[in-house]
């Protein structure tokens, strides 16, 4: 249902594009193009595949999502790099290197991936991320699937990068080996690594290697895993203070494809209802707005061509003067708007600062407790490091919601300012009544601009680095620095293993480090203040001026039309066009 609606939407939008093209309505054409991109972007689901090494992730992705063996698989640890698989009419591999360069390949995929994502491959260390474009039906429907290194891979840095993807994923498929179900790492993952209800809500546990489980043992295995999962979930629920429903547990075999149909159905059900339907509904509304806009433009054309040529020529002259006046008015508008927006950005920064303070206290408190409770049982540095990282990650996850709420509030306030200013700036002076819509457009346009930055900011806090690259704020990565405290952890551990008190004292080192990192972060955020205001103002200015130029173009075109065609024929033509438009 969802997929049919999605393709219907794309089809109708394409028809509208052809329609607008024929009528030569330039502005709208650009809007339609970006709307088409928006549909593709917003109606794409990111699915992350997680699990211990050899749990069958790569095999599963090959069989389930792309239907052929592309990703390298092996009985020993294999995948060493995150691999993102997307739809591509033309199949290719894009290797993104740590130094920022990239290379493309169009054939010999298996071999290339062996050298680049498989452990031991000679290029592996130089690579940041690998993208594989495959012409598969499943991906074409709008799925982006991410293959990850085994979570129990000894290289913790890899695990950090993988976990960084969690909050970006629309759904997580967590593969468990049915033959050795519910290992320590799986228990730990549920209890320690994922700590927001939102993240847990999107997990599907897949009991892989189902082909190797005897018929008469299957019920028992499921029962066992369920019971263990419940135990872990109880701990998580207590910590979050929220009851968490048990995630789905689906037995599958990546080898024999057992239960693939069940999984496919459930996954689509989840993705389309949870995320897709709302978005789809909005997009349909947007299509109607575009249609309405085109209709208004046609009506304007009809009205214009009713006028005498002389009248049109005069209007064109007036328009030129009006553009000059508009430029002046925009400057005044800008002056009035700037302090208001600056004020909002400043208080947003202040709120973020408070949040960081709270976060810091929380981290220190959690760390102290954990160290206090666990110190006797910790024998090696790796364990100690793990405690530190997990505590930090946990605190950050718990604060994540608050951060997002802050940002939402900030956006709302900006919107309100724009709304108020919009009513003060008497738009009727500038546009025909229909064009008042333009400011709404600006808001639409502006939202993703800021949100991209703030999203990256959240990511930077959570993951500590650029995962998908190109992030504006990716260079600011507080957690990365904090996670790098692994080194500090080591020193503390070595110095004071026997002296518990000493370890607790050394926590101040961590506190200082967090302070430093956060203050650097805040400084950068403040530095972006002007950039945010400028972006908003630039958008307004451009849109207003563009609207004017468009109007000028329409006047000129009307004059041309009048030279070539008879007025009543033109009216009939445009009226037919309106009827045609309504059917799209
Ligand atoms: N019998 C059986 N074998 C499987 C199944 N899934 C995977 N395998 C085999 O298990 C081995 C490991 O599979 P991979 O797909 O490489 O596992 P992975 O999770 O990607 O492993 P890493 O990349 O090392 O994290 C391969 O030899 C697969 O052929 C399954 O459902 N049943
Ligand atoms: Mg693998």
From TrEMBL:
It is found in: Membrane. Residues 41-322 form the Dynamin-type G domain. GO terms for molecular function: GTP binding; GTPase activity. Pfam families: Dynamin_N (PF00350). GO terms for cellular component: membrane. Keywords: Coiled coil, GTP-binding, Hydrolase, Membrane, Nucleotide-binding, Transmembrane, Transmembrane helix. The keyword Transmembrane helix applies. Residues 277-336 form a coiled coil. The chain crosses the membrane at residues 467-493. This is Dynamin-type G domain-containing protein.
């Amino acid at each position: 249902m969802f997929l049919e609606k999605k393709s219907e939407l794309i089809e109708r939008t394409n028809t509208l594009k052809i329609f607008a093209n024929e009528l030569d309505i330039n502005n709208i054409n650009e809007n339609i193009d970006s709307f088409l991109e928006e549909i593709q972007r917003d109606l794409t689901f990111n699915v992350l595949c997680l699990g211990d090494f050899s749990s069958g992730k790569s095999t599963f992705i090959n069989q389930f999502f792309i239907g052929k063996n592309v990703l390298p698989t092996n009985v020993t640890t294999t995948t060493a790099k995150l691999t993102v698989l997307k739809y591509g009419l033309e199949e290719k591999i894009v290797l993104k290197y740590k130094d920022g360069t990239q290379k493309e390949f169009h054939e010999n995929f298996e071999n290339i991936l062996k050298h680049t994502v498989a452990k031991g491959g000679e290029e592996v260390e130089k690579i940041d991320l690998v993208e594989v474009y495959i012409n598969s039906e499943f991906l074409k429907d709008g799925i982006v699937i991410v293959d990850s290194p085994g979570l129990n891979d000894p290289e913790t840095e890899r695990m950090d990068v993988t976990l960084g993807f969690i909050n970006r994923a629309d759904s997580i498929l967590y593969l468990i080996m049915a033959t050795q179900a519910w290992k320590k790492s799986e228990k730990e993952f549920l209890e320690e690594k994922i700590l927001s209800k939102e993240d847990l809500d999107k997990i599907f546990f897949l009991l892989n290697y189902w082909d190797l489980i005897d018929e008469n043992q299957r019920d028992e295995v499921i029962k066992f895993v369920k019971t263990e999962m419940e135990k872990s979930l109880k701990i998580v629920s207590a910590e979050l203070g929220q009851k968490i429903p048990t995630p789905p547990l689906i037995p599958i075999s990546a080898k024999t494809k057992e239960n693939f149909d069940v999984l496919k159905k459930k996954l689509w059900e989840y993705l389309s209802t949870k995320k897709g339907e709302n978005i789809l509904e909005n997009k349909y509304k947007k299509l109607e707005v575009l249609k309405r806009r085109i209709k208004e433009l046609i009506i304007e054309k009809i009205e214009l061509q009713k006028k005498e040529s002389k009248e049109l020529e005069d209007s064109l002259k007036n328009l030129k003067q009006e553009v000059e006046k508009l430029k002046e008015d925009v400057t005044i508008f800008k002056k009035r708007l700037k302090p208001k927006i600056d004020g909002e950005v400043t208080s947003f920064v202040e709120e973020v600062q408070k949040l960081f303070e709270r976060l810091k206290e929380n981290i220190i408190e959690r760390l102290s407790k954990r160290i206090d409770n666990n110190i006797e049982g910790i024998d090696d540095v790796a364990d100690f490091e793990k405690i530190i990282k997990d505590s930090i990650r946990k605190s950050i996850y718990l604060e994540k919601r608050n951060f997002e709420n802050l940002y939402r509030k900030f956006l709302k306030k900006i919107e309100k300012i724009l709304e108020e200013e919009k009513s003060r700036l008497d738009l009727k002076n500038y546009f025909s009544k229909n064009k008042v819509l333009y400011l709404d457009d600006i808001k639409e346009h502006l939202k993703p601009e800021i949100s991209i930055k703030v999203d990256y900011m959240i990511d930077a806090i959570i993951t500590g680095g650029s995962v998908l690259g190109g992030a504006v704020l990716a260079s600011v990565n507080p957690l990365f620095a904090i996670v790098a405290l692994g080194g500090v952890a080591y020193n503390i551990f070595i110095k004071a293993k026997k002296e518990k008190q000493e370890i607790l004292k050394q926590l101040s080192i961590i506190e200082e480090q967090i302070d430093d990192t956060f203050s650097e972060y805040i400084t950068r955020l403040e530095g972006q203040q002007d950039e945010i205001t400028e972006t908003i103002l630039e958008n307004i200015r451009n849109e207003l001026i563009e609207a004017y130029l468009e109007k000028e173009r329409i006047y000129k075109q009307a004059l041309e039309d009048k030279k070539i065609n008879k007025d009543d024929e033109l009216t009939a033509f445009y009226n037919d066009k309106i009827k045609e438009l309504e059917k799209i």
